[in-house]
Amino acid sequence: MENILHGEEARDKLLLGVNKVANAIKGTLGANAGTVIIQNPAGLPLILNDGVSITKSITDPDPYIQMGINLMQEVAHEAQSKSGDGTTTATILAQALCNTMADDDTDNIKIKETLNTMCKYIVSELKDMATDVNDDDLLDVCIVASNNDVELGRLIHQALLAVGEEGNVIIETNSDNTTTWSLTEGLVMDSGYVNKLMANADREKCIYDNASILLTQEKIDTFNHIVPALELSMKAGKPLVVVCHDYNPSILPNLLVNIMQGKLNVCIVKTAGFGDTQDHWLQDIEAKCGGKVFNSFDSIITVKEHELGVCDKVEITSTTSTFIKDGVDEDYIDNLTSILTQVKTDFEREIVENRIARLTSGIASIKVGGITDIEQRERRERVDDAVNAATLARKQGIVSGGGVALKDIWWKTQETVDKMDGIIYFDAILAPIKQILSNSGQPTSNLAYAKSKGEGYNAVSRKYCNLRFHGIIDPVGVSINAVESAFSIAILLLTTDCAIIAPQE
Q1: Closest CA to 269 of 202, 315, 308, 223
Q2: CA 205/CA 25 separation, integer angstroms
Q3: What is the DSSP string of 148-216?
Q4: Contacts of 455 (CB under 8 A, 6+ apart)
Q5: Is 27 exposed, middle or buried (0-12, 13-18, 19+ CB in 10 A)?
Q6: What pTM was computed for the model?
Q7: Is the dihedral of CA 486, 489, 494, 495 positive or negative?
Q8: C-alpha 413: how far from its chain's center?
Q9: Cα distance between residue 341 and residue 339, in whole Å
Q10: DSSP for 44-104?
Q11: Tens digits of residue pLDDT in 351-371
């Protein structure tokens, strides 16, 4: 096989990969969606409807087609990492855009300009459509995102209400087939691991039980700086979490190789914020987990076991670090409370109040059960999707679900634009609603072109109605992330002029 393809020939191969992925998962969209069964080399087949998990299992012997598959895997990953949901929608949109583009003989530069303009326009329209979420809306989001499992959606909703808008939810595995939730104590920092290869669990999470915590204001400049802490934690049979102001990227290769080989259980996290805020986070984690905040290299390399903090459970993603442990240093809280009487500005007061709140607020723990490992994994993924979607809805608002928001934008373009450059590309945003109709056994022409704003097909009640009024809603952030991810891949495919298969060493 030739190791290089040019122009249209290269793009055609990539498109085959795009279509292979999209065709595999598009049947999982909507309340009447099907599932995908995947052979599991380690045991029983996996039955899934999660876009990211499905795309990861797709391969092709043709390396050029595989490139297209990899592009779509990135679409799903981007949607998942940004919002925790919307991966299938993003994939379907990307497929529609790429296939429309393949049939367009317009100059590529012009098409690229059109796609960039479209993406910005659609995102702007989605933001304008968004409305704030209330408790009832939040319940609807939880139910829809948990694949219309009402009981599961209600449980997730209860957990979210219990911790409030600033609270956090962690997801664990239960020992039996029941799914329950409870409040626990912990601390959540808006900063995650420095490299995703440090993740050791599903959904690119790093989860450690009974972890040692190394806290330092100094930049971790060499691997040797953390070796003493690593040796102490390994001797105690514990993983190590390093929380530092900064680190030298040159330490990662050696560290990551050992992690991937199973020789080390370690994760590095940079403190959130800048300047004093970083110091505050280290002090607050120390108050929660114990140990000592180091401020020099000399002290780090002479670290003693009692100078390492201890945490019952640590859950780290690319954006957050959650430290689960009962109790907090009461003297520390009293000191922060006394500082409130001394601050001179509202800004300073807000900082201290937020620190007290994050140290004393609860974290909801949802323990997911299942009769089989397959069932438990599938349910856990639904819970994860629902929690992420609901959290995003709280922050950014909601729009009509079921592909209706994009359908309404499509209609607006037909009514307000007579001769828009690249108008044919707007038809691509009808792909999600058409797919939902198809998965429900409905003609795709029934609703895709309906003018009534907010009207769509309720796949649960099997009726046409205003979806917003019937609780079929999406977090606007999920829709935006899906659109941006899809357009990004379409533009990347468009601008590909050459595909090369590197020789095997």
Answers
A1: 315
A2: 23
A3: T-HHHHHHHHHHHHHH-TT-EEEEEE-SSS--EEEEEEEEEES--BS-GGG--BGGGBEEEEEEEEEEE
A4: 404, 447, 464, 465, 466, 467
A5: middle
A6: 0.75
A7: positive
A8: 31
A9: 5
A10: SPEEE--HHHHHHT---SSHHHHHHHHHHHHHHHHHHHHHS--HHHHHHHHHHHHHHHHT-
A11: 998 898 888 878 899 999 988
Which residues lie below 8 Å from residue 205, measured CB to CB, with a gap of 6+? 199, 315, 316, 317
SS3 425: helix
Distance between CA atoms of residues 138 and 389, nearest Å: 9
The mean of the pLDDT values for the chain is 88
CATH class, 4-130+398-500 region? mainly alpha
Judge whether residue 49 has pLDDT over 80: no
Query: For residues 354 and 288, what is the distance between their CA atoms, to the nearest angstrom?
Result: 15
Contact 139, 394 (CB under 8 A): no
Where are the domain boundaries for CATH 3.50.7.10 in the chain? 187-395
User: First-to-last CA distance in the chain?
Assistant: 17
Q: What does the block give as tokens for 309?
A: 């903090």
Distance CA(159)–CA(141), nearest Å, equals 14
Quickly state the pLDDT bin for 442 (edges 50, 70, 90): confident
Q: What is the DSSP letter of 147?
A: T
Q: Exposure string (b/e) for 148-184, b if CB count within 10 Å is 16 or more?
A: bbeebbebbbebbeebeeebbbbbeebeeeebebeeb
What token pair was written down for 137? 């809306």
Banded pLDDT at 372 (limits 50, 70, 90): confident
Instruction: Express as a percent the part of the chain with pLDDT over 90.
Output: 47
3-state secondary structure of 418: coil
In order of 125, 373, 448, the CA distances from 175 in angstroms are 46, 11, 45
Q: Which phi and psi (to 5°) does residue 6 adopt?
A: -120, 155
The token duo for 450 is 């309906």
From the number of C-beta atoms within 10 Å of its C-beta (0-12, 13-18, 19+), residue 394 rates as buried
Domain 187-395 fold is GroEL (3.50.7)
pLDDT, tens digit, 9 for 90 and up, residues 166-216: 778 889 889 888 999 998 888 999 999 999 999 998 878 999 999 999 999
Please check the confidence at residue 12 and state whether its pLDDT lies above 70. yes
Q: How far is CA 194 from CA 252, 273, 461, in A?
A: 9, 15, 45
Residue 162, CA distances (Å) to 111, 135, 141, 364, 449 in order:
49, 12, 16, 7, 42
The HSE-up count of residue 376 (CA atoms within 13 Å, CB side) is 19
Instruction: Provide CATH 1.10.560.10 ranges for the chain.
Output: 4-130+398-500
Residue 8 has pLDDT above 60, yes or no: yes
Torsion of CA 163, 165, 168, 171, to 10 degrees: 80
Determine contact, residues 133/393, Cβ cutoff 8 Å.
yes
